[in-house]
Structures are given as structure tokens and as C-alpha cells.
Amino acid sequence: MGVRQGKGNDGQASEEKKLARLGFVIGQFDKEISSSMEKAATEFAKSRGALVQEKIHVPGVFDMQLAIKKLLLNKEIDAVVLLGAVIKGRTKHDEVIVRTTASTAVQLSLEFNKPVTLGVIGPDATEKDAEQRKEEYAERAVYSAIELTRKLRR
């Protein structure tokens, strides 16, 4: 029996050609920045043929950990993208927040064998820095999630 053109024996797309299915965790402490990042990330994902399966909004970047884990447990999600900004204050609090979140993201990525990409502006970023970097950071995080998903499927 023949195989339809462009299809494998089971009619399914090859693993490498499947669309990346993404989950977003968005820290909303600086809501104007994070909303712009969410929009840029969503549009970029769509332009690259990726599906945004689920979005979880959390109060701030430090609150992302459980939301990351929830998305990683979802078998319909291939990678998780973190979006948000941590603006520098008078103390080193911004450094603690970003380092802790990045460290947890790495640990969870390794635990679940799925990419977790960091589209978080900071530490040591001013409001002006965040405004200038928001689209770039969002798009880079989505790009990394898509590429890592594709490469890990091989």
C-alpha cells in the first residue's frame, strides 16, 4: 500500500517538524512592561509557527516557580518561556530575585527535561532599560524555546 505524498507511514508529521508547544509565565509587577513583552512573545511565537498552549500570570518574577512547574508537568507543553522585568531599586533585592528565579528555572528544566527560557529583564535594569529591551528579551526567549525544542527532538 502506498504512502500519501508528504506523510510518513502513520500520517503524522516527523518529530522535528512538529510545532513547538509553549507555555508562558508572566510576572506582572511592572505590568506595562510585562504586557508589552507578552504581546511581543505571542506574536513572535505565531510568526515562527509555534503554539502558545497556556499562559500563567503571576504577581512578580519571584512568584514564577510553581507556575513553571505546573506548565512543565503538562504533557502538551514542550518548553516554558519566562517573561517579566525586575527594576533596580535602592538595595540588591533585584539581584536576589533574578538569580533565584534563574537558578530555579535551570533546576526545573533539568528535572523535567524540557527547556525553560529566561526572558526576564534585570538585574540592575532601570525603567528606561526595561522599556528599550522588552521586545528583544521576549523574542529571544521564545526563539530559544523553539530552537531547543527542535534540537532536543532529534
| Mean of all residue-level pLDDT scores | 91
The CATH architecture category equals 3-Layer(aba) Sandwich
Radius of gyration: 17 Å
Flag low-confidence runs: 1-13
Give the ordered list of helices and strands: EHEHEHEH
Shape estimate: globular
Which CATH first-tier class would you pick?
Alpha Beta
Number of distinct helices: 4
Query: How do the strands line up in the largest sheet?
Result: 2-1-3-4
Percentage of residues in strands: 15-25%
Count of structural domains: 1
Tell me the helix content.
Answer: 40-55%
Q: Strand pairing plus helix content: what structural class?
A: alpha/beta
Give the N-terminus to C-terminus distance in angstroms. 28 Å
Major β-sheet profile = 4 strands, parallel
Report the CATH superfamily.
Lumazine/riboflavin synthase
Q: Tally the beta strands.
A: 4
Q: Tell me the CATH topology.
A: Rossmann fold
